[in-house]
Specification:
The structure holds three protein chains of three kinds. In chain A, α1 packs across α4 and α5 crosses α11. In chain A, 40% of the residues are buried. Chain A is built from 14 helices and no strands. By secondary structure, chain A is mainly α. By secondary structure, chain B is mainly α. Chain B is 71% helix and 0% strand. In chain B, α7 runs antiparallel to α8 and α9 packs across α10. The two termini of chain B are 34 Å apart. Chain C is an alpha/beta fold. Helices cover 38% and strands 25% of the residues of chain C. Chain C is built from 22 helices and 20 strands. In chain C, the strands form four sheets. Chain C has a six-stranded mixed sheet, with helices on both faces. Chain C has a six-stranded mixed sheet with strand order 16-17-18-13-19-20, sandwiched between helices. Chain C starts with 11 loop residues before the first strand and ends with a helix. The relative contact order of chain C is 0.10. The chains are: A mainly alpha, B mainly alpha, C alpha/beta. At the A-B interface, α1, α6, α7, α11 and α12 of A face α7, α10 and α13 of B.
Chain lengths: 326, 319, 542
């Protein structure tokens, strides 16, 4: 078997194993809930029996490994259990399944994230590469100062400034982004513009700086100097000599920042009350709705691991030492 | 060159290079610093001053809600009062102390944990290193904010809990950096020379390794502080961080966020005077969240400017 | 008469007058090259020699009109075939680079793009010149590989850089430079990083190429014997200033400038070999391995007579440094033992007593990394005094000054940091650090290899004097035969983890030699312009 295939399979297995360990951590966290959480969820007025029934329903009387196994089987089938909300102290259970809650939210967040990524990634790459090529020019210095300021600013500040400028002062976009399922595609875009713009600004700032650093590092390689000394034109150097070696570092940068996007989404959704999975998670944390929190965490962590895995694999594929072993 | 110059080993040995004291060298570096770094340094000093002397600087108590709510600027309250009648200016000052203080403690704790583990891993380079590194890899597989949110939902939002959770999660990055930097030092011949001498591990760590990993660690401290600070502010903004009535910039943004929507639109074609005047009033009305968020941004930007200059200086890139 | 005389040289190809080059460091521009002239005729080879910091590389690159980032060509004229290169815009210079002037870098491994095959990079420049079609260019490249004596010339071009060895890459780089039949090639220290035995082949290949196409060349190196093989004329550079220039023969036999004379005289130290039956150290039947892998040392037996110097000689991979690690206890042997003063040393470092550790000291090749950059000289020398001998206060200070005197340094050096010292000074501090422990045996691991020739001389003389005064024994690990001649009593030759030969210096350096020793010794360049030619003839005949 070609060493590259072996390496890729190794990475995939490693990724799965990491996901497994992460799921263990997420699952076992419920063990740390204070003993009286039953009462906390159902309310003060709950009787001993209702609490006991609740605990039985959660399977807390079963041994840990069996609970974990049941949970994993459920997760794989898309069943994350029932939300804690909607349960009354009387024992009445109007809770909805977690997957029901998450489904539409997840779709919205993916929409927002994709919209952002489509604009942010090419823009950041372009700015980063040109800034690296025209290092220390006015263009580079201005971009550097601006991005340094942006990455140091909290996202909600950027969000509120945009809201101030584009929603309050000039009523171009709505400040509260409520998506309804019956909206047209373009309506959805319109409503999602402010949150997407905020995310784009933040992501572009990060990604551009990292790209610039990676390209500068690449351009300092001895073989690039050698290419210059062979009289090869700058554009050909970039295309034929720098680019083939740039895939790996750039892929890493993109994956890292897409992962960052995953996290940034949370704050932005709260500011603009965008009905996504980020806002759902924050609300769930506040009400300590543990099944929802667990499910959201699994989804976020899984996405994060997958993105890093893709970056890893691109790095492997573009490494000539692995493509053509001795 | 005159012909009677002797080119010998003795001549080379006799050469003496210019020696400057450490103090003088630092002063020369400072003078060469770009304006952004100066700006950053001055702002950090101001923030530090405010945080330390908060009780003496603030006109009112942080939880003193004896005033009427939503008062405009001026008239005993420089920035007005918030939604339950507390003086904004005082809350901003106390917020400096609380938010900065908590962030500082958290960063110190994160460095204590991550730094020592990183050093141990670099020295060991065997099973212990593998074990800790794999553990850290798994912890880092869950995005930080998300992990923090999950843990907060389990353990609740107390200040101690907040500090511990963020410190442990952030220590993973400090671990990675300390380990990487220590590995470059640990393979140096002078460390091997110390081992060959028979020096104990503690001595080697203290006297050989630690002084040489300080510069990147100091820079990283600034970056991590900035990151921790932003995370705590973000969590407080989301409502799961620092709890009321403690004054904290993140929650101040959250409490008064809705005010921003009351800024009235800019009317085109209107006379200059009327628009600006009205804008001024509205901004002052919407100021609490903007001031708090601005305070956060200003500190982190300043820290980043200083760290950026420090890294640029120590990396010695030939730009 | 130099039998490399190739007859009439052409007219002037390169004329550099009064060239000044500045370098930017510490926020200021400093002069690196301070007004140097250089002229080169067609088909002529000029050797450019000097120690590190002389500016050879900078000058060589300036000959093509190129300045590295952080350098600028401040003034002077650089005329190449009538064209002024210094002020020419880069776009125009690009037309000349790679086609009429080619550059061969010091490190071939770094200069080849890991993402492309060798042959694509080889023909890149000549394709631009429009000399050949792709097919013809490839055929030509294969011919060049053959001329460079690369193995498997038909196929080697279709490999990637990491699939080929260092010496082969260096020859491929020369082929790449020749592919577009340039008028001038600049060779920048091309064999410095290679083993002596590989160097011979590469030198031969380069000389063939230059002669065949009647290319002019500038050959940059710090090795006097190598430049004697390659150049028609030699120019000596020191700190950016020209010291002397003359024809090779004249330069070697009758240099005029005092600096040049001192460079030549460096190889004049010679120690009369003596031995003794009293062995301070004995390595008996040692096998060693890293981890669970194969043995890197096989049945090594070495004995070191008291108060004498044993030189361990070998190329990279021979096991010299591994042997040192076994002696110091960093790598416990898989089999065999090490006897010190007749007693077996605990194989592991941790098992040895402070006193055992004290008696064997080590000095490293790179003084930069051997000393903690944040410790002063006082702390560096003082620590062993404190640690082993328990000296404190006034006694400690007195001893530190004594040690500084022993290494010929002034008392004022005590409060300096390593970063403020020159290369020779740093290595002397390392010697003082070793001496501070009052050792019986000092292992010198390539201690002069990173130093300039003149500085090397000083260090070797110092070590010899200290041995005379203190009676300390040395194990001197090196790959440089000249050093071995200078300083050793006995020689141990190692090849791939085995001891190939051991004995008194004068016995070993005389024929008859075992196969490898012969190869090793004969591969060391000598300061005779005909050496390479004679060697190749001799080898072809056997």
């Amino acid at each position: 078997m070609h060493p590259i295939v072996r390496t890729i399979i190794q990475r995939l297995l490693l990724g799965l194993f990491t996901l497994f360990l992460v799921s263990l951590i997420i699952f076992s966290s419920i063990e740390f809930l204070p003993g009286d959480f039953g009462e906390a969820v159902l309310g003060q007025a709950a009787t001993k029996e209702t609490v006991a029934a609740f605990r039985r329903e959660l399977g807390l009387d079963l041994p840990a490994y069996q609970r974990y196994f049941d949970w994993v089987v459920g997760v794989v089938q898309g069943d994350f259990g029932q939300s804690f909300s909607g349960r009354a102290s009387s024992g009445q259970d109007r809770s909805r399944s977690v997957i029901e809650l998450i489904g539409p939210r997840l779709k919205n967040t993916l929409f927002l994230a994709t919209m952002t990524a489509i604009i942010a990634v090419p823009l950041a790459l372009f700015l980063g590469i040109t800034a690296a090529l025209y290092r220390n020019s006015i263009y580079d210095r201005v971009i550097n100062a601006t991005t340094l300021t942006t990455i140091a600013t909290p996202e909600f500040f950027v969000a509120y400034i945009l809201m101030l400028l584009l929603s309050s002062l000039y009523n171009v976009f709505p400040s509260l982004s409520g998506i309804r399922a019956d909206m047209t595609f373009w309506d959805k875009i319109y409503v999602s513009t402010l949150p997407s713009l905020t995310l784009t600004l933040v992501i572009v700032a990060h990604m551009m700086r990292m790209t610039r650093a990676a390209i500068i590092n690449l351009l300092a390689s001895p073989y690039i100097e050698m290419a210059r000394l062979k009289g090869i034109s700058s554009s050909r150097i970039i295309v034929r000599h720098a680019l083939p070696n740039a895939w790996a570092p750039i892929a890493t940068v993109i994956a890292f920042n897409l992962a960052y996007l995953v996290v940034g989404v949370v704050v932005v959704e709260v500011v603009f009350t965008y009905p996504g999975i980020g806002q759902l998670m924050v609300d769930a944390v506040r009400t300590r709705d543990v099944p929802v929190v667990q499910a959201c965490t699994v989804i976020f962590a899984g996405t994060y691991i997958m993105l890093n895995l893709i970056a890893d694999i691109i790095g492997i594929i573009s490494n000539p030492r692995l493509l053509h072993p001795r | 060159m005159s012909d009677d110059q002797t080119y010998s080993a003795a001549a080379e040995v006799g050469q003496i290079k210019l020696q400057r004291s450490r103090f003088k060298r630092s002063w020369i570096e400072l003078k060469k610093a770009p304006p952004t770094a100066w700006f950053g340094l001055i702002m950090i000093i101001i923030y530090g001053f405010v945080a330390i002397f908060a009780p003496w600087l603030a006109p009112f108590g942080e939880a003193d809600s004896s005033f009427s709510s939503f008062q405009p600027w001026g008239d005993g309250h420089i920035f007005g009062t918030d939604q339950i009648g507390r003086d904004i200016f005082s809350r901003l000052i106390f917020g400096a102390r609380n938010t900065i203080g908590i962030a500082l403690v958290t960063t110190l704790l994160s460095f204590a944990i991550g730094g020592s583990l990183g050093l141990i891993a670099a020295i060991n380079q065997a099973w212990l290193d593998q074990l800790i590194s794999r553990l850290v890899d798994v912890l880092m597989a869950i995005p930080g904010l998300i992990f923090a949110l999950m843990l907060l939902s389990i353990f609740g939002s107390s200040t101690i809990g907040l500090i511990l959770i963020i410190a442990v999660l952030d220590s993973t990055r400090v671990f990675r950096l300390t380990r990487a930097v220590s590995l470059t030092v640990v393979v140096m011949d002078y460390v091997e020379a110390a081992k060959l001498r028979g020096e104990k591990l503690g001595w080697i760590m203290r006297r050989e390794i630690l002084p040489n990993i300080m510069p990147p660690l100091v820079a990283e401290f600034g970056l991590r502080f900035s990151f921790v600070f932003l995370t705590i502010a973000a969590l407080s903004f989301l409502g799961v961080g620092i709890q009321p009535p403690t004054a904290d910039w993140g929650s101040m943004v959250r409490d008064n966020a809705s005010l921003i929507q009351f800024v009235r639109p800019w009317v085109t074609g209107d006379a200059f005077g009327a628009n600006w005047g009205r804008l001024g009033e509205d901004i002052k009305l919407a100021s609490p969240p903007l001031l708090a968020a601005g305070a956060i941004a200003l500190l982190t930007i300043s820290v980043n400017f200083v760290v950026d200059w420090f890294l640029h200086k120590t990396s010695g890139l030939k730009e | 008469m130099n039998d490399r005389d190739r007859g009439e040289k052409g007219d002037i190809l390169l004329e550099m007058k009064d060239v000044v080059i500045d370098g930017f460091s510490d926020e200021r521009w400093h002069e690196i090259i301070k007004g140097v002239d250089l002229s080169l005729k067609r088909g002529e080879v000029l050797g450019l020699i000097g120690e590190s910091g002389a500016g050879k590389s900078t000058l060589g690159l300036a000959a093509m009109g190129f300045a590295r980032p952080g350098c600028r060509l401040t003034s002077g004229s650089i005329l190449f075939d009538g064209m002024e290169l210094r002020t020419m815009p880069e776009v125009d210079k690009q037309k000349i680079w790679g086609t009429r002037i080619a550059y061969v870098a010091q490190s071939a491994a770094a200069a080849f793009n890991p993402a492309h095959k060798l042959i694509d990079q080889t023909i890149e420049a000549s394709l631009r010149k429009g000399m050949f079609s792709v097919k013809d260019a490839q055929a030509d490249a294969i011919e060049l590989y053959r001329a460079m004596q690369l193995p498997d010339p038909e196929k080697i071009g279709f490999r990637y850089p990491h699939q080929v060895s260092g010496g082969q890459l260096q020859r491929a780089m020369t082929a790449m430079a020749m592919a577009s039949r340039p008028d001038l090639i600049i060779f920048d220290e091309p064999t410095t990083a290679l083993d002596v035995t590989t160097q011979v082949e590469v030198l031969a290949a380069m000389r063939n190429a230059v002669e065949r196409f009647n290319t002019a060349a500038i050959y940059i190196t710090h090795d006097l014997a190598v430049v004697a093989q390659m150049a028609d004329r030699i120019k000596v550079l020191r700190y950016g200033v020209e010291m002397e220039e003359a024809e090779t023969n004249k330069m070697l036999t009758a240099p005029e400038n005092p600096y040049t004379k001192s460079l030549w005289s460096v190889r004049s130290i010679y120690k009369e070999p003596e031995t003794s039956d009293d062995h301070i150290l004995e390595i008996q039947g040692v096998d060693a391995a890293y981890g669970k892998g194969m043995n890197v040392l096989h049945n090594v037996n070495i004995s070191v007579p008291r108060g004498r110097t044993v030189a361990i000689v070998g190329e990279s991979g021979s096991g010299k440094s591994t042997t040192a690690r076994v002696i110091t206890g960093l790598l416990p042997p898989v089999a065999g033992q090490v006897l010190f003063n007749g007693e077996a040393l605990p194989p592991k470092l941790e098992g040895r007593s402070k006193d055992q550790l004290r008696r064997i000291q080590m000095i490293y090749q790179m003084a930069d990394t051997a000393m903690n950059p944040r410790h002063t000289v006082r702390e560096i020398i003082g620590r062993p005094l404190e640690f082993y001998l328990g000296l404190k206060g006034a006694d400690l200070n007195k001893r530190i000054i004594e040690l500084l005197e022993m290494i010929e340094l002034d008392e004022s050096f005590a409060d300096r940091l390593p970063g403020e010292l020159s290369g020779g000074q740093k290595q002397r501090i390392c010697i003082a650090r070793a001496l501070a422990a009052n050792p019986e045996l000092i292992i010198c691991d390539e201690v002069t290899s990173a130093l300039d020739q003149i500085v090397q001389e000083g260090i070797l003389k110092l070590l010899l004097r200290l041995q005379n005064e203190l009676g300390v024994s040395y194990i001197f690990i090196t790959h440089d035969i000249a050093t071995v001649q200078a300083i050793s009593d006995e020689i141990v030759v190692m090849l791939q983890g085995e001891v190939v030969e051991q004995g008194l210096k004068n016995k070993i350096m005389e024929p008859p030699y075992p196969e490898y020793t012969k190869l090793l010794l004969s591969s060391v360049p000598e300061m005779d312009p005909n050496w390479l030619t004679n060697l190749l003839k001799a080898r072809a005949e056997t």
